[in-house]
Here is the input.
Amino acid sequence: MPGEKEKKKAEGGWADLFKKEDWLAVWLGFLIIALILLGVQVKLPGFKWTTGGEFTKLIATMTPVVDGVVKAAGEKQEADLLAAATGLKAAMGTGDRKAIGDAAKKLGDVGKQAKDSGLKSRADTASKGLVTPAGQLPGKVFSGENIWRAILIGIGYLILATIGIALMGAPVGKFMVGFPVVYILAWLSMVIAGNYTVTYWGLEFVLWALFLGLFISNVLGVPGWLKEGVRTEYYIKTGLVILGTGILFGEILQAGAYGIIQALLVVSVVWYVCWWLAKKLHVDDDFAAILATGVSICGVSAAIAACGAIQGDKKKLSYVTSIVLVCAVPMMVLMPWIVKAFEIPHVVGGAWLGGTLDTSGSVVAAGALISDAAMKTGVIVKFSQNVLIGVAAFILAVVWSFKAGALTGERPSARVIWERFPKFVLGFLVASIFFSFFLSTGTVKAVGGSLSGLRTVWFALAFVCIGLDTKFTELATMEGGRPAAAFLVAQAFNVFWTLILAYILFGGYIFPAPVIK
Here is the structure.
């Protein structure tokens, strides 16, 4: 009936801008970005901490390194450097963390003036290895001031998120009861991940957030009063909009075409392989698309974008996000070890990590276990893949619109395709373009730390919710385990295919190897 059509149009259209989760995540992300750009000061809580026992072991590990600097400085007749290194060695003998931190910082400053480049590098390694851990006292993380900072951010997030919940027409009271618990779990995950040993092994907050959520959902059970605060997509979509501020086209292009080429070849080939495998195992089209997009681009974020584009089943999305994160754990630990054990060139290893690990944080953590060059290369490749989230979402929105049209006999219009396209991806792209081309480098750097920290909180909330939404019994039984089989085989192919590409593009065997230090 004409009247019903007009009513449906009125309910959609402009009204969607302030009622739909996708748009509300965009506005929330833009609001946070705008507040930071306008000069609102946010004091982020600290999460890094090193216990006394860990620092004592670190001193033992770094002693030969410092001894080497003392010996080399004497041989090279670098008097100032010799004095600084000797002072650090004496401080290490006392075990006083403040004295060690001060002496290590002095060594780093003096080392920059060293004439010998090799000695300069060794002094820098010794300094960096001790300066930061020396100041990471557990008491700072659990101090009243630091906890109050976390509480203030939690209150701010509760207010902002509640406005969106109210506009969506969801139960505000129930959300306000559940959100603080989810936030506390997210905070706890970041505290655990901030420990020195945990950081060393690259076990980032994403995994701890997931584990905490999984423990509650599978062992204790999720109480009814908490469920309204479990809003995975709302949180991660907001975080992804803010993530756009860190995806700078200029940096990707300056790094050369290699990262972009690898990203295109990894995404296109791995996507097709996963899709083909899923179809061979009789997995339905929607499930196959979410699986393929998740494994080929960047895990959870890409899977959510794909699910939005095809208007897929939320249970299937939860399944994919869970299996992505569970698979990430052994990969984060084993891949850096493989790079070192098989003496894979660090730039190649970084490109391998960037093409296979599913979050930027995991790439940074795993790359840092190898070298700075590996970490930088990995980030370049990962950012190149992240840009393709928008491309994938658009293609899927178009294809699924035509699929739906084939069933109804109607050719899909541009409006239908627009309605399918995930709006938070648009927010991600707008933020990326704005920060890439309309802001000065100085401004981008000045606000980068605050935006990164705030984005991390949104992601921590989302990954806690993924755990709370996941039950192992459902993972094991959904469609007879066939989607999991398709994902695991595709991920294995991804690991080998990306390593081959990394060698071809970054190894210097066919093309000149890029210089990344």
